[in-house]
Specification:
It is built from five helices and eight strands; from the N terminus they run αβββαβββαβαβα. By secondary structure, the chain is α/β, with parallel strands linked by helices.
């Protein structure tokens, strides 16, 4: 899957914070589909860590299976958002203030928002107009909310995270098109 399994153990901040915020979403168009609290680190970003990147992923799974993976406490993986291929529907799985375990690099996890996209890197048919359009709107909103420049230095693919062995979003991801949509949103 696009989100890398985090191999180090990161303790959660006690106090049930994730449950208290379960119904809130940071992106108004998103549906709340929470990841297991065992699959991310509760935090208070940007007070604890500045957020300065968006990391684009492709799941290598279906939308439904990805939600199940994020909800499984044994998987130790999550992303902030998941975009469905067919219609661009957005699920939020981890609050922006918390640290999703998506990049496979703790430093990047602490300072980025992870956006997963349903599909496979070698099947470009999953990269629908709806997926690109809704993902670009989401990415633009995240950038606006966190003051992240809308450029390729700050909106990166998982393959660009130092130390990763992932290739997503893959060779069929249309970066010029995507960035044009992000800037226009």
């Amino acid at each position: 899957m696009g989100a890398a399994l985090v191999t180090a153990s990161y303790g959660l901040i006690p106090g049930g914070r994730a449950d208290a915020r379960a119904q809130a979403v940071d992106y108004p168009s998103a549906e709340w589909q929470p990841a297991s609290a065992s699959n991310y680190t509760a935090s208070n970003r940007p007070a604890t860590y500045s957020v300065d990147h968006v990391v684009i992923h492709v799941t290598q799974e279906t939308y439904t299976d990805t939600l199940a993976i994020f909800a499984n406490p044994k998987k130790k993986v999550s992303a902030h958002y998941l975009v469905r291929s067919a219609d661009g529907h957005v699920a939020q799985c981890v609050r922006d203030a918390d640290i999703a375990w998506h990049a496979g690099n703790w430093g990047y996890n602490t300072r980025s928002i992870g956006i997963e996209h349903e599909g496979w890197v070698d099947q470009p048919s999953y990269f629908t107009d709806a997926l690109y359009q809704q993902s670009a709107r989401l990415t633009a909103a995240v950038c606006d909310r966190h003051g992240i420049p809308k450029d390729r230095a700050h909106i990166i693919g998982h393959y660009e995270v130092p130390g990763t062995d992932h290739t997503d979003p893959g060779p069929h991801w249309d970066w010029p098109r995507y960035m044009k949509l992000v800037r226009a949103a």
